[in-house]
Amino acid sequence: MYKVDAQQAHADSVTTEGAANVQIQWLIDESRGAPNFALRRFIVQPGGHTPRHQHPWEHEVYVLRGRGLVVTDEGEVEIGPDQAIFIPPDQIHQFLSYEDETLEMLCIVPNGPATEGHG
C-alpha cells in the first residue's frame, strides 16, 4: 500500500507550450507501485489553462473544487465540483479555469505513453 497527502505532495509547473498557470502533482504512478494507471492532480490558477491538445489515450477527470470549462472539438462544457469528465482517446481538449477561481482536478491516465518522461 502507498498513501500520499496531496496537500503536501510536490507540485511541478506545467511547461508544455500552450499551458498557462497550471501545476501538476503526480500522486500515484509506476514509481509508487501502480502497474496500470497514474493518478495526478492538476491545479489551474484563476485564468489559467492546459494546452489545447490531443493524444491516443483516455482521461478520467474528477473536479475537486473550482469552476471552469472543458473545451473540445464539440464545443465548451462548464465544469465544477463533484463532476466527472471522460475525455476519449484522440479528442482535442483543453481545461480552463474561470478568472476568479482556482480549478483543481484529479486526472487518471494509463501508464505508458501518457506517463513517459515522468519519474
Question: What are the defining features of this structure?
Answer:
119 residues; mainly beta; Jelly Rolls; six-stranded antiparallel β-sheet; three-stranded antiparallel β-sheet; globular
How would you describe this protein?
There is one protein chain. This protein has 119 residues and is an all-beta fold. It has one domain (24-110): Jelly Rolls (Sandwich). Helix content is 0%, strand content 49%. The chain has no helices and nine strands. The chain has strands at residues 12-13, 20-28, 37-49, 59-65, 68-72, 75-79, 84-87, 93-97, 103-110. A six-stranded antiparallel β-sheet has the order 1-2-3-9-4-7, with no helix packed on it. The two termini are 19 Å apart. The mean pLDDT is 95.
Write a brief structural summary.
By secondary structure, the chain is mainly β. It is built from no helices and nine strands. It has a single domain, classed as Jelly Rolls, CATH 2.60.120.10.
